[in-house]
User: Which sequence fits this backbone?
């Protein structure tokens, strides 16, 4: 008889405990993050995302990527012989709906959460997951406070705004040789955080922030805002809000004949921007983590995504795919669906071979490897443009290096 490994002994102990507890435990199972402690039902992974509203295209893209990852896991035999089931919840990119989505997922019996988009929706959700010890691996919520205050149960496969802000400032003051820089956000947690981070780095690098203010999202005419910014004579305007407003800013800047360079953050790389702005999008530059088409390891994912949806994957799809895969890896490593065990396993993951690169989490739950590059709109598509070399001091071609 083959000796039992420590993991096998833990599983046998749990099975015996579950059998001994019998029906007394059954009503509590769903509320505790697993509706089948004996280990035969599906392992539920929650995916909160904006499935309606202005950011719905990004949310639907994230959900589709999660389903592609789950389908691959199940085709390969599942996790510890159990299938993975994706449970979705619409957070509408709002704080109120973010809290409600978190509660809905917990009530559905998810053992972990992999998703998110707007940092503002993640802020109220994190303590709700935390009270149940359910780990949350974010794919697109980049505000630094989310992991700074996450107390060890929050992780990210995406980057942080303070890292992106530094990259943006280095690009504007270095590659573009800009000295007068305008910053525009929309007062959301993500956008203001990124603008603040970029502004601080610009000043440290010797640049001058000549404008820093917010627009009102959801408007149809930003000409007055653009005219006011133009009066400060900026070399570059860095917009840190979302893609719905970015497309209008590109279009109306061209209509006004304004010559300053327009850049944006990673929430502006959705393909919707290109449809809204049309020819005015040409030459637009954005800071972002590498997109799916720029990641050699993402080729199989891109094919599977297209086959499932009939469309190209959006900017955060690969980070959601990796988030689901790393959660599944942690559940398998833990040999458990208990939140504390999964969290401990996530902290131990080292160089997980994600399609976005090796994934190791630091003590806060952030990735240890830098992610951000710049992309530029060429021939009607976002194309990898420049990235910093390993020294962090020189910009090189992001397509060939």
Assistant:
């Amino acid at each position: 008889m083959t000796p039992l490994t420590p993991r096998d002994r833990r599983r046998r102990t749990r099975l015996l405990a579950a059998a001994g507890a019998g029906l007394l435990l059954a009503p509590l199972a769903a509320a505790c993050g697993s509706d089948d402690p004996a280990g035969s039902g599906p392992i539920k992974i929650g995916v909160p995302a904006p499935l309606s509203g202005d950011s719905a295209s990004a949310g639907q893209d994230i959900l589709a990527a999660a389903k592609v990852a789950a389908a691959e896991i199940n085709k390969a035999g599942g996790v510890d012989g159990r299938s993975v089931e994706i449970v979705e919840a619409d957070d509408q990119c709002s704080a109120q709906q973010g809290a409600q989505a978190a509660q809905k997922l917990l009530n559905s019996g998810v053992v972990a959460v992999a998703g998110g988009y707007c940092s503002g929706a993640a802020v109220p959700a994190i303590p709700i997951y935390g009270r149940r010890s359910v780990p949350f691996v974010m794919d697109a919520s980049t505000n630094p406070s989310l992991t700074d205050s996450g107390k060890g149960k929050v992780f990210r496969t995406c980057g942080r705004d303070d890292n992106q802000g530094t990259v943006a400032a280095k690009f504007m003051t270095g590659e573009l040789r800009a000295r007068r820089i305008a910053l525009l956000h929309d007062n959301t947690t993500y956008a203001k955080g990124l603008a603040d981070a970029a502004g601080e780095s610009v000043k440290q690098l010797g640049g001058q922030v000549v404008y820093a203010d917010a627009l009102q999202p959801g408007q149809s005419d930003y000409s007055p805002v653009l005219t006011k910014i133009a009066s400060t004579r900026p070399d570059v305007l860095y917009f840190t809000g979302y893609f719905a407003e970015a497309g209008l800013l590109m279009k109306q800047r061209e209509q006004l004949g304004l010559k300053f360079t327009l850049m944006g953050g990673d929430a502006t790389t959705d393909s919707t921007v290109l449809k809204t702005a049309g020819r005015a999008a040409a030459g637009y530059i954005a800071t972002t983590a590498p997109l799916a088409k720029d990641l050699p390891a993402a080729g199989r994912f891109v094919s599977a995504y297209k086959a499932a949806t009939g469309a190209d994957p959006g900017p955060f799809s690969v980070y959601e795919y990796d988030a689901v895969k790393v959660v599944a890896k942690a559940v398998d490593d833990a040999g458990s669906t208990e939140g504390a065990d999964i969290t401990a396993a996530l902290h131990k993951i080292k160089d997980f071979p994600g399609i976005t690169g090796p994934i190791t989490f630091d003590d806060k739950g952030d990735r240890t490897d830098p992610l951000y590059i710049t992309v530029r709109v060429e021939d009607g598509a976002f194309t990898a443009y420049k990235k910093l070399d390993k020294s962090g001091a020189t910009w090189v071609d992001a397509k060939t290096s």
